[in-house]
Design goal:
Elements (H helix, E strand, L loop, with lengths): L1 E5 L4 H13 L4 E6 L19 E5 L15 E4 L6 H6 L2 H21 L2 E7 L22 H20 L3 E6 L1 E3 L8 H10 L4 E4 L5 E6 H14 L5 E4 L4 E3 H16 L3 H5 L2 E4 L14 H7 L7 H14 L1 H9 L5 H11 L1
Helix pairs in contact: 1-6, 3-4, 5-7, 5-10, 7-10
The structure holds nicotinamide-adenine-dinucleotide and 2'deoxy-thymidine-5'-diphospho-alpha-D-glucose (DAU).
Length: 341
């Protein structure tokens, strides 16, 4: 199978490519990524020379970027993904998440290929009680969530109108290796290691439903192979936690691993002004994917958090190069090397 993976240099996309190359070593992977601030080709350093993996720098909003590429399915991870950035400036979110998805839908329509759209539980909005099912209404609250909900609507419209073979997955909050340090879990670990304040929005009691990134990647692969065209699949691991509990767990692990005083680390916690429109609680009902596809999470939260803390401790250079901005030069340097050969 030949997969066009968009946004493969980001957090989930790079974990997905690594997963696919080990689960299906015969697959051809084309990674189409614009390399925005969130795209880091160093995330795939260990596999960039594998013959059935090809990186293409390009923008999903640009029709030309897929011209000449051969593939059987598009897995669309490419997006602007950070809620706080969407509150500051929503324009790139509307462009990439809506217009970029539209462009890929047109490509899928022209080529009659499978289109798997990676979406999010944030499209359902916030709920104090109960769980989001695939039939829950879409009530997005942030510009990011609204842009993802819009792209989901476009996918639905293309299925209904043009009968394209598209599926949508809606996953809860991911964590694990290679997550950009603007997101809560890597930010807490890195600030603890650097002894910097740890900003907690509001009262710290907002609830997120956490899933280990590799479990999400397995779910996307399972939907690609066993999902039905036109269907939506929620992905979650029934793991709701208030933010403050996650932060305390992370600080406890960092203290344990580095033999530090836990109290010194919890002293870094700093309650700050709340995020505008901060969703109180996300909670996914994953029954459909469990029953119809036979997928379930393998990683417990305790183990996943330990693995993640260990990864950030062992890969200090990776995140230091992000913080210094050095990582942005990696692609150009590699490219120049290739031109010389
Ligand atoms: P990320 O920000 O880490 O990575 C996004 C990637 O997309 C980057 O490599 C970036 O360079 C690329 N990109 C951005 N604009 C592009 C464009 N116009 N053309 C081509 N490439 C472009 O994001 P992530 O956390 O890995 O999320 C991946 C996908 O999964 C997104 O669609 C997101 O909405 C969805 N999702 C994320 C989570 C989560 O917890 N992180 C949960 C559910 C769903
Ligand atoms: O639910 C899936 C979504 O999860 C994805 O669609 C998004 O792409 C992804 O970014 C994530 O969105 P969140 O807004 O939930 O993730 P974030 O890591 O930004 O924040 C998690 C929670 O922690 C949220 O309640 C806000 C809070 N927070 C976040 C940061 C960065 C803090 O308290 N302090 C912080 O510094």
């Amino acid at each position: 199978m030949r997969l066009l993976v968009t946004g493969g240099a980001g957090f989930i996309g790079s974990n997905y490519i690594r997963y696919i190359l080990s689960a299906h070593p015969d697959y051809q992977i084309l990674n189409l990524d614009k390399l925005t601030y969130a795209g880091n080709p160093e995330n795939l350093k260990d596999i960039e020379t594998i013959p059935n993996y090809t990186f293409v720098r390009g923008d999903i909003c640009d029709r030309e970027s897929v011209r000449g590429l051969e593939f059987d399915a598009i897995i669309n991870f490419a997006a602007e993904s950070h809620v706080d950035r969407s509150i500051l400036d929503s324009s790139p979110f509307l462009r990439t998440n809506i217009m970029g998805t539209h462009n890929l839908l047109e490509t899928a329509r022209e080529r009659d290929c499978i289109f798997l759209h990676v979406s999010t539980d944030e499209v359902y909005g916030s709920t104090e009680n109960g769980f989001f099912t695939e039939d829950s209404p879409l009530r997005p609250n942030s510009p990011y969530a609204a842009s993802k909900a819009s792209s989901d609507m476009l996918v639905r419209a293309y299925v209904e109108t043009y009968k394209i073979r598209a599926m949508i997955t809606r996953c809860s909050n991911n964590y694990g290796p290679y997550q950009f340090p603007e997101k809560l879990i890597p930010l807490v670990i890195i600030n603890a290691l650097d002894k910097k304040p740890i900003p907690v929005y509001g009262d710290g009691m907002n609830v997120r439903d956490w899933i280990y990134v590799e479990d999400h990647c397995r779910a996307v692969d399972a939907v690609l192979h066993k999902g039905a065209a036109g269907e939506v699949y929620n992905i979650g691991s029934r793991n709701e936690r208030p933010n403050i509990e996650v932060i305390r767990l992370l600080l406890g692990k960092v203290a344990e691993r580095l033999d530090l005083n836990e109290k010194d680390l919890t002293g870094l916690i700093s309650f700050v002004k709340d995020r505008e429109g901060h969703d109180r609680r996300y909670a996914i009902d994953p029954l459909k994917i469990e029953r119809q596809i036979g997928w379930g999470p393998l990683m417990s939260f305790e183990e996943g958090i330990s693995k993640t803390v260990d990864w950030y401790i062992s890969n200090k250079q990776w995140w230091e190069r992000i913080i210094s901005g050095e990582y942005m030069r990696y692609y150009d340097a590699q490219y120049r090397e290739r031109l010389k050969k």
